Amino acid sequence: MVSGESLREYFAHPAAMTAADGYAKQFNDLPAPIAELCAVVQGALIHRDWAPLYGVAFSDDRKPEVQIRPVREMLERILALDDRPIKIARVAERRLFAVCRHFALLLCAILRHRGVAARARVGFGAYFTPGKFEDHWVCEYWNAAEARWVLVDPQLDISQLKVLKADFSPLDVPRNQFVIAGDAWQMCRSGRANPDRFGIWDLRGMWFIRGNVLRDFAALNRVELLPWDAWGALMRGPEADTAGSAEENAFVDRVAALSTAGDGAFTEIRATYEGDDRLRVPRVIESYTDRGPQAVAIET
């Protein structure tokens, strides 16, 4: 059994996607409070779908920015757009175009850089569309003062909160407002929730939830890919809702249970991930971009 201290040490160190490498000095003199770190993230990134709220168009020449995976490449582009230190908020049009995953990952990288245990979590937000759970990523960090894991949504700034009329703090997102993918899978498998309420746009159902369970499990092993990246035999499209075998579903049941079991499951999470090709992210994955599926080599 891995102790809580060892588990938190694992999540307090950067890995391939969260290592800042030569740009690490950008993190050295950032403020300590989590609210101020979220402000730094929001001052560096702009969500592609929320861009009109800030008077910015997501133009074709900027679309490649949302395909960036490692934090070091995010920082490279952020500084190319505006070479001032990252702690200085950029004007909206000079921020890196991103999606929720980038916001969560950048905050995660900053926290890990200072030795705070943090991880990206993949799941569904209940606060975007009434009656639906939208595909979303947040950051979960270990609050030592309160001895608990806390969900933070660094994407939600004052402007977005006003539009959403959210009645909670994005610095401590309630577990019923952000549903971790493993919980969503269990809810739908047991009949407690309708899987058609989970997903994004017209992409909804158990197949979508299954994909997010696997992405969240990879993130629990410090491999944080893009929301449209896929790998392994279990990441199939809508046909998986009917083609998924009882054995496959039982396997995903186990993965979902592990991902929501708490710190005591860490040893089994690591062993299960490393020992199964259906879970472990390979060197080449398939990314479903607006240009269609693309084979992409990545670092793990």
Describe it for me?
With 300 residues, this protein is of the alpha+beta class. The protein has one domain. 34% of the residues lie in helices and 17% in strands. It is built from ten helices and eleven strands. The protein has helices at 4-11, 34-44, 71-81, 100-113, 158-164, 181-189, 206-219, 240-243, 246-259, 266-274; strands at 45-47, 96-98, 118-125, 133-143, 148-152, 178-180, 198-200, 203-204, 229-230, 284-289, 292-297. Strands 3, 4, 5, 6, 7 and 8 form a six-stranded mixed β-sheet that branches. Helix 3 (71-81) links the parallel strand 1 (45-47) and strand 2 (96-98). It is globular and about 55 Å long. It starts with a helix and ends with a strand. The mean pLDDT is 95.
